[in-house]
Specification:
Length: 158
């Protein structure tokens, strides 16, 4: 299974009509999925609501296993173990909103994305020097995604 990531900017709640297959009849709308284990990460997102969006991007983050391993390396780069983040013992650590989040589905709200965008900017030089080219490519994709979603948007994992 592959983890897909989509980032959206300029999201506003809207109403939509659905076709006979349950799909929206208008373009540029999404339905955010709130992960019940991490509702605080979906700041500002109304569960079950449809959102009209502006600019957006999509990418693949690899298999669920590859993505989890990448998050482990990201946490180590920032000086902590991902397992410690999952246990709640590293509050306020860089990248925490991403490292301590589901690896298969859910949405990150605009404020969470803003914090993550700042983390990715702050650690950019360290990442450029220490990450493999493949890890750095994914780092850069997330960096763009969080910058985009910090503008009244969201990042959605499926």
């Amino acid at each position: 299974m592959t983890l897909h990531v989509a980032a959206y900017a300029d999201c506003t709640i809207t109403t939509v009509e659905l076709d006979e297959e349950g799909e929206p009849t208008v373009p540029s709308v999404i339905r955010a999925r709130v992960n019940e284990c991490y509702p605080e990460r979906a700041d500002g997102i109304v569960k079950g609501a449809w959102y009209r969006h502006g600019r957006h991007m999509r990418f693949r983050a690899g298999s669920y296993h590859e993505y989890s391993e990448w998050r482990r390396r990201l946490a180590l780069m920032a000086g902590y173990r991902a397992e410690n983040a999952w246990e709640g013992t590293v509050p306020g650590a860089p990248f925490l909103g991403l490292v301590d989040f589901a690896d298969n589905y859910g949405s990150l709200g605009s404020s969470t994305c803003g914090v993550l965008a700042a983390d990715f900017r702050t650690w950019d030089d360290v990442a450029a020097l220490g990450m493999s080219s493949e890890d750095l490519k994914l780092y850069r994709q997330f960096q763009v995604a969080f910058n985009l979603a910090s503008q009244d948007g969201m990042v959605v994992f499926t």
